[in-house]
Amino acid sequence: MKDRRIQDIRIDYAKASLSEHEVHADPMAQFNRWFDEVLNAEALEPNAMTLSTATPDGRPSGRIVLLKGVDHGFLFYTNYLSRKGQELATNPFAALTFFWPELERQVRIEGQMEKLTDSESDTYFNSRPLASKIGAHASPQSQRVAKKEIVQNIAEQLIKRIGGLHVPRPGHWGGFRLLPTHLEFWQGRPSRLHDRIGYDKLPNNEWERYRLAP
Ligand SMILES: Cc1cc2nc3c(=O)[nH]c(=O)nc-3n(C[C@H](O)[C@H](O)[C@H](O)COP(=O)(O)O)c2cc1C
After folding, report:
1. How close is the Cα of 64 to the center of ligand 1, in Å?
2. Is 19 in contact with 196 (CB distance < 8 Å)?
3. Whose CA is closest to atom 12 on ligand 1?
4. I want to staple 174 with a disulfide (CB 3.0 to 4.6 A). Which of 84, 99, 121, 181 is the partner?
5. pLDDT of residue 90
6. Is residue 1 scored above 70 in pLDDT?
7. CATH code of the domain in which 71 resides
8. Is 188 domain-assigned?
9. Whose alpha carbon is nearest atom 4 of ligand 1?
10. Which residues pair with 65 in a beta bridge?
11. Would you say 112 and 181 are in contact if contact means Cβ atoms under 8 Å apart?
12. What residues line ligand 1, using a CB cutoff of 6 Å?
């Protein structure tokens, strides 16, 4: 295994296929169907997704975040002052990418991000374990810190100060909703002839769907 060369790593995909006739007309329904299937497959962290953002002059950055809900958009939570938070504040265009190897599937989603309302963010924040709530207060996410003890000490002091009291959501922490205008469902196929079905949101809010070359 140790001698395996990167360029020799390859898998032939054969688990399933995808056709423009079998997918839902509504891509959100199609996403929910695939999400149910990946939950049933007991995949590891199926709600982990790559969030891509960019500066106003188009310099991209990516990182993993956890999907925490789906309604007419895709919800996740973070620190609004983090690098991603600052990029989204100046350029709301973003992309989400899921890879579910257990099902040989990828989903790509693009659109604009909006902040959740205070009450939506409060509801989720209040459902989090105490340690996560403290962490949201203690960590100046994405800022340089001289040593890890600094953040740990802030967290310990907060725990002492707060005791068993209610921990309110810090104003710099909350949710975003990506409102999709483009989605693509990718199913791995043998010989790299993968199935790709794309959806574009039209000005009348209907979805156009089409096949893409692999
Ligand atoms: C599996 C996994 C899940 C993560 N989930 C989140 C999340 O939901 N929210 C978040 O802010 N960071 C999450 N992170 C950490 C981010 O990847 C990232 O390190 C952090 O948000 C800072 O990113 P930024 O400096 O680009 O803003 C997660 C990381 C991993 C590996």
Report:
1. 5
2. no
3. 65
4. 121
5. 98
6. no
7. 2.30.110.10
8. yes
9. 65
10. 49
11. yes
12. 45, 48, 61, 63-66, 76-79, 82-84, 141-142
Residue 144 lies in a domain: no
Is residue 48 within a helix (H) or strand (E), and if so which, with residue range?
strand 48-54
Ligand 1 centroid–CA 63 distance in Å is 6
Three-state SS for 119?
Answer: helix
CA of 84 from ligand 1 middle (Å) equals 9
pLDDT of residue 162: 83
Q: How far is the CA of 132 from the centre of ligand 1 (A)?
A: 13
Report the separation in Å between the CA atom of 17 and the middle of ligand 1, taken as the mean of its atom positions.
Answer: 32
Domain coverage including residue 42? 10-128+171-212
User: Residue 1 domain-assigned?
Assistant: no
| In the chain, % of residues over pLDDT 70 | 99
Instruction: Look at residue 149 and tell me if it is in a domain.
Output: no
Give the pTM.
Answer: 0.96
From the alpha carbon of 48, which atom of ligand 1 is closest?
1
Q: Cβ(194)–Cβ(187) under 8 Å?
A: yes
- Count of domains forming the chain: 1
